[in-house]
Amino acid sequence: MEISTQHTDPAPPLAAPSTAVGKRAARGATRPGDRIFLGLSRGSGILLLVIMAAIAVFLTYRAALAISKDDGNFLTTFEWNTGLLPAKFGIAVLAFGTVVSSIVAMALAVPVAVGIALFLTHYAPRRLAGPIAYVIDLLAAVPSIVYGLWGALVLVPHLSGLYGWLDAYLGWTGILSWQGGAPRSLLTVGILLAIMILPIITNVSREVFRQVPRMHEEAALALGATRWEVIRMAVLPFGRSGVISASMLGLGRALGETMAVATVLSPTFDIQASLLDPGGGTFAQNIASKFNEATEFGQDALIASGLVLFVITLLVNGAARMIINRRKEYSGANA
Amino acid sequence: MAKRIDVSGLTAYYGAHKAIEDISMTIEPRSVTAFIGPSGCGKSTFLRTLNRMHEVTPGGRVEGKVLLDAEDLYGAGVDPVSVRREVGMVFQRPNPFPTMSIFDNVAAGLRLNGVTKKSELNDVVEKSLKGANLWNEVKDRLNKPGAGLSGGQQQRLCIARAIAVEPKVLLMDEPCSALDPISTLAIEDLIGELKERFTIVIVTHNMQQAARVSDRTAFFNLAGVGQPGRLIEIDDTERIFSNPSVQATEDYISGRFG
C-alpha cells in the first residue's frame, strides 16, 4: 500500500520543499482519520474490481465450455437447441430482438422524456412542476413485473387498433405490416420498455436542464430570444451530453429488462420481417424463460448469451462516451 | 440609430419587495451614462428594467414608463422579445455560449433575426469583432470555442455579440468587475468608441471608471436595508465628481460611506 501511494505522488517540481513534513503532507494520510478513510475508500475500489473480475472469469469460463461444444455457429444460428446432442444454438435472434425492441423504446421514450424535462424546468409553473416530478418518480418505483402484467392484461388487448392503423397506412414499408396475430410482438415490447425507461431519462435530463447556468439563458434572452430559442441556444446544447448519458441509462435498462418482456412477448426463435408480427426474443427474456429447466450445459449456453448482452451494453456505453467526448471542448463544463 | 431613453415614475418589485421606487431620468443618445451607488441600491435592477430583463426573474414586475424615443417599452402589446432586440446587454461575468464557436457566438443574434446568408453573416461578424477590438486576436480561430478565450477577450466577444444586431441602446452591468486592469482598460477604450454609435448605460462599482468613461453619472442610494433604492441625482459626470448638488452623493464619492 505504502509503495503504491508513492507512485501516485505528483513528480515534485524542481525546488519543491523536500522536508519530511512536506512529503507527508503531500501524501495526505498521516492522521489516523485520513488513514482509515483512505483504507476504506481504496478497499472499496479494489473490492469492486475483484468482484467484476470474478464475474467476468466465471462467465467467460462457463460460456467457453458451451460454445466449444456448439455444433452451429454461435453468432448466426437461428436455433436454440441445448437438450439433444448435437447441440445447436446461436444468438442471432436474441441479438436482433434485444436491439430492435430497445431502439423502438429509445425512439419513443427519449423525445417524450426530453419534452417532459423541458416542460418541468422551463414552462411549468412551480406549483405544477413539483407534483408532476413526483408522479414520474413514482413511475420509476413500479416493479417491472407489474409493468409486465399491465402490458399483458391491458396494453396488449388495446393495441389491435393501433396495429390495424399502422398496417393500413404504413404496412407498405414491410416493417410495419401486420398479419393479424395477437400484438405480442417486438413493437409492443418496445412500447412497454419506453414507458419503463421514461422516468429515468426524464429525471436525469431534468437535473441537467436545471443546472444550465442562469447567465447562459440570460445571454440568449438579452439577444432577444424567445423561450424556445433560449432552449435551443442555451439549454439543449448545454444539456446535450447529459441527455445522452440519461438515454444510455435508459437504454441499459431496456437492453436488460427481463420480466416485463417475458410477460408480454410471444417468443419464437426466428426473426419476423415486421415489428408487428409476434415472435422473436431478447437475451434476458430467453435466459429467464429457459434457465430453470436447462441442463448444466444448457445453463452454460445461456450464460454465453448473457455475455454477449454484456458486450453489447459495453459497446453502447463506449459509443455514448465517444459522442460526449468528441465535442468536449464545447461542453458547458469549461464555461 | 442610437435612441433616447425617457424613464418616468419607474418602480420595480421582486414579489412583494419593492426594489426601486419612482425613478425618472432622461438618457441622451450617443452618450455614456454611468450608474453608481452602494450595493443593493437597485442600479442593476433599474438597468434590467430598461430592456425588460427584470421581469424574467420570478416575481419581477415593473410599474411606470420607459420611452425609447417615443415608444413605451412597457406599453400594452409590446413584446419583450422585440424590446431586447433593440436594447442589447452585456453582463457582469462574460457569458459567451459555451457550446458555440467564436463565429457562432457573434452570429447568434443575427440568426435569431433570420439572417442565414453566409456572406452577410461573415461581413457582420467581422465588422462586430472589429467594432469590439477583438478581430485581430481571433480572426485565425473563429471556429474555436468562445469559452477558450481569456476573460477580457470573452467580455469583448460578448460586446461583439451584443452590437452585431445593431441595437439602439447598449446596457452594461458591471462589465469589468470580473476582469484584470489591462482588460478593463481595453473595455473602457472600447466604450469610448462605441458611444459614437450607441446609447450606452453602464453600471459600475468603480467610481474612477465612471469618471473615466461616462458623460453623465446617476447616483442611487437606499435609505436602509429592505428599503427601496432611489435615484438621488443625475448630472454631468464632471459636476457629480467635483461639485454634486446633494450631500449624500459627495459623501459617497469621497468615500465617507458605501
Automatic annotation (TrEMBL), chain A:
Family: Belongs to the binding-protein-dependent transport system permease family. CysTW subfamily.
Highest taxon, organism lineage: Bacteria
Organism expressing this protein natively: Streptomyces mexicanus
Compartment list: Cell membrane
GO molecular function: phosphate transmembrane transporter activity
UniProt KW keywords: Cell membrane, Membrane, Phosphate transport, Transmembrane, Transmembrane helix, Transport
Protein name (Swiss-Prot/TrEMBL): Phosphate transport system permease protein
ABC transmembrane type-1 domain sequence ranges: 95-320
Any one of the GO BP annotations: phosphate ion transport
Annotated transmembrane regions: 45-67, 87-120, 132-156, 185-205, 301-320
Bilayer topology: Multi-pass membrane protein
Gene3D superfamilies on file: MetI-like (1.10.3720.10)
GO CC aspect terms: plasma membrane
Keyword Cell membrane: yes
Any matching Pfam family: BPD_transp_1
Major localisation: membrane
Entry function: Part of the binding-protein-dependent transport system for phosphate; probably responsible for the translocation of the substrate across the membrane.
Annotated stretches, region: Disordered: 1-21
UniProtKB/TrEMBL annotation, chain B:
Pfam family, one: ABC_tran
GO cellular component, one term: membrane
Organism: Streptomyces mexicanus
GO MF, one annotated term: ATP hydrolysis activity
Organism taxonomic ancestry: Bacteria, Bacillati, Actinomycetota, Actinomycetes, Kitasatosporales
GO BP of this protein: phosphate ion transmembrane transport
UniProt xrefs under SUPFAM superfamilies: P-loop containing nucleoside triphosphate hydrolases
ABC transporter domain span: 5-247
UniProt keyword terms in alphabetical order: ATP-binding, Nucleotide-binding, Translocase, Transport
Protein name: Phosphate ABC transporter ATP-binding protein
UniProt key word ATP-binding: yes
